[in-house]
Design a protein that fits this description.
The structure holds 2 protein chains of 2 kinds.
Chain A (H helix, E strand, L loop, with lengths): L1 H11 L1 H22 L16 H24 L34 H25 L18 H8 L20 H22 L6 H28 L4 H15 L14 E3 L2 E3 L16 H8 L28
Antiparallel strand pairs in A: 1-2
Helix pairs in contact in A: 1-5, 3-4, 3-6, 4-7, 6-7, 6-8
Chain B lengths: L1 H20 L3 E3 L2 H6 L5 E3 L23 H26 L17 E2 L9 H25 L9 E2 L7 H9 L14 H23 L5 H28 L4 H17 L32 H8 L27
Classes of the chains: A mainly alpha, B mainly alpha.
């Protein structure tokens, strides 16, 4: 489990990293234009190196992942095969042994079931919309791991976050987001904020006004989804405080992957001068939602802080021209 | 004044909270990013051995922002004045700080509103979070606009019989023709009042995104859009959840949505929170899963509570400030 090792190392390295951060800044400021620059819209003088189709195809990969997770959780099946074709050969999730444990959640709270159905429909709609917008340029669905095996993506992420123990060769631990309402919500939590930061980070990269308009609408939908998940975790956190703590652990694990900037937040309450305050919305000090570069998003979905082209939820990498994560190792 | 000054400190501390606990590394001022990607990082954090205060966003020289973008930002600022006053008032009992009300155009007064005595501690915690966010949106937009920022126009957030909320609730049928809707009276009423405003904020930012010419401003606007959607999603999720016990909440959310649709033209741009027997409708989206947008004129139809082309009314008794001020003729 190379990815898992990387993730755990990253967590252990937090204190050390903090101490080294100043030096890092001296280094990274000089190289930022090389590392993230290809995707940084920042400089007006800098020629844009990605096309709208590149950006939309990158988003399509993420939507394939999200849609399949919610589809399994609600219907017990992946998204329809007709929604997976495109440039390259589509990899059906059912063809991957790792997805054997993905299945319909037996929800106990009807509200959670109703949210799951709504989100599943939205995410498939996003897949189909992006495929339609891209036409013949749409990439096929890559290999996706939404299973529950001990070496799979969910288990690796949950282990790094401390949600499950380290396990042994004889008794490996695994995380099953399909087993309970709460685990489903935590599984969804892993995705949704990432989707928001991805669209937020991409908005200014698009040039076509129609695409900007559509991407803004999808960004908002992802933020609504994230709010549903975070609010519901918070409400269930009244009776089960460990849920709030779990979101902080997941957030911390994600932050260890995507570079030194703290782009992620859990939902734990804090006491402020005006009273007990929630943290449903992950924002910066200006109350703006965070954005991630595509490369940072790939660090998270690959579960690897190094510059790699596959891993984690995408065992064979994403399809399209944007496929390498940032080097935050 | 004391209340306002205290509030400003409180809000500043609230932001410090996030900065401190997150070891914040901030991209300081979006304008800097345009000047060159390499120079954009400015560290500020609370480490064991150091504390660097959060830098104030660098005011953007207004001359560098195209007039069209200035108009969009100022239009957004008017909406943020409305939202922030509602949420800050509900959470703290005071409106927006006086220092955040100044600017070009005619500065108006804030009418009505009071602190909500929340019964549910988590609802109160949400109210405080949203209040802090909206307060910072005002602060951020003013910082970006610099000397071009419009002043806070006259705003009516009154919960009495002559207040804008009551007018909206009457037209929606949430209360009868002579009834009163007081969004400060209960947790549930605060949620409905919030839903009334927050969905409008989402559609306004969404509707403006593609009209923004500056990539830097678009990036910031996308960040605010997302936050408004989180807020709206939070409120709608709670209304839906509490609607299990109190079905009237789901019904009233539908009525508010219908009323907004009556105001903003023939297209059905608005949705309540009730889906089917097995599906919720927290996200107001079209068949592509894409959230709706409204033009500024349509947004003003709702803010003015008038489907005709007018320049004032409803929540803005003297109209909004800036160049975009007329509602659409529907």
């Amino acid at each position: 489990m190379t990815e898992s090792v990387h993730l755990i190392e990253a967590l252990d390295a937090r204190v050390e990293r903090r101490n080294e951060r100043r030096n890092f800044f001296k280094a990274v400021v000089g190289t930022a234009a090389v590392g993230a620059g290809a995707f940084a819209f920042a400089s007006a003088a800098q020629a844009q190196t990605v096309t709208d189709a590149d950006v939309l195809n990158f988003a399509l990969n993420l939507e394939y992942l999200e849609a399949n997770f919610y589809y399994y959780a609600v219907f017990g099946t992946p998204i329809p095969a007709t929604s997976t074709t495109g440039v390259g050969t589509p990899v059906l999730t059912t063809a991957l042994p790792v997805n054997a444990g993905a299945r319909a959640v037996v929800f106990t709270d009807p509200l959670v079931s109703q949210y799951a159905r709504e989100i599943a429909a939205d995410e498939l709609a996003h897949v189909n919309f992006l495929r339609s917008a891209l036409g013949a340029a749409a990439v096929a669905q890559p290999a996706i791991d939404v299973g529950i095996t001990p070496t799979g993506a969910f288990s690796s992420a949950a282990r790094a976050a401390g949600l499950i123990g380290a396990g042994t060769a004889a008794a490996p631990t695994f995380f099953d987001p399909y087993s309970t309402d709460e685990n489903f919500l935590l599984g969804a939590f892993i995705f949704e904020d990432v989707g928001v930061t991805a669209y937020k980070g991409s908005a200014a990269l698009l040039t076509n006004k129609t695409y900007i308009d559509a991407a803004a609408g999808i960004l908002a939908a992802e933020a609504y989804h994230a709010a549903i998940i975070r609010t519901t975790l918070d409400q269930k956190g009244i009776a089960t405080p460990s849920l709030r703590a779990a979101t902080e652990s997941i957030s911390t694990a994600r932050d260890s992957l995507d570079g030194t900037s703290d782009l992620d937040q859990g939902i734990a309450q804090t006491t402020t001068p005006i009273g007990l305050t929630s943290n449903i919305v992950p924002t910066n000090a200006d109350a703006l939602a965070f954005g991630r570069t595509a490369q940072q998003v790939l660090n998270i979905v690959y579960l690897n802080k190094a510059a790699v082209t596959l891993g984690g939820f995408f065992p064979a990498g994403v399809n399209g021209s944007i496929k390498t994560s940032a080097n935050n190792a | 004044m004391i209340d306002h000054d205290t509030l400003l400190e409180v809000m500043a501390l609230g932001e410090q909270r996030r900065a401190e606990r997150r070891r914040f590394i901030q991209i300081a001022g979006t304008a800097v990013m345009a000047a060159g990607g390499a120079a954009m990082l400015s560290a500020c954090g609370h480490d064991d051995d150091e504390y660097l205060p959060t830098p104030t966003p660098t005011p953007t020289p207004t001359s560098s922002i195209a007039q069209g973008d200035l108009d969009i930002l100022n239009f957004a600022l008017n909406l943020e004045y409305l939202e922030s006053n509602y949420y800050v008032m509900a959470a703290t009992g005071s409106g927006l700080n006086d220092t955040l009300r100044t600017g070009t155009g005619t500065q108006g007064a804030l009418t009505g509103g009071r602190k909500v005595a929340f019964a549910d501690a988590t609802v109160a915690s949400y109210a405080r979070e949203i209040a802090a966010d909206e307060n910072q949106h005002v602060n951020f937009l003013r910082g970006q606009l610099g000397s071009a920022a419009v002043a806070m126009p006259a705003i009516n957030i009154d919960g009495g019989a002559t207040g804008a909320f009551t007018a909206a609730a009457r037209s929606a049928g949430v209360v009868g023709p002579t009834g009163t809707f007081d969004p400060y009276a209960s947790d549930d009423n605060w949620l409905l009042g919030g839903m009334l405003l927050s969905d409008v904020g989402v559609t306004a930012y969404k509707g403006s995104a593609s009209a923004i010419s500056s990539k830097v401003i678009l990036d910031a606007a996308a960040g605010i859009l997302a936050v408004e959607a989180y807020h709206s999603g939070l409120l709608r999720t709670l209304l839906y959840r509490r609607g299990v016990e109190t079905p009237a909440l789901r019904t009233n959310a539908e009525l508010i949505s219908n009323a907004r649709d009556t105001l903003d033209g023939p297209l059905d741009l608005d949705q309540g929170i009730t889906g089917t027997a097995t599906t919720s409708n927290i996200v107001p989206a079209d068949t592509n899963g894409i959230v709706f947008g409204r033009t500024p004129g349509q947004v003003l139809n709702i803010a003015y509570l008038n489907k005709a082309a007018v320049t004032s009314g409803g929540f803005f008794p003297a109209g909004v400030n800036g160049n975009v001020k007329s509602s659409a003729a529907n």
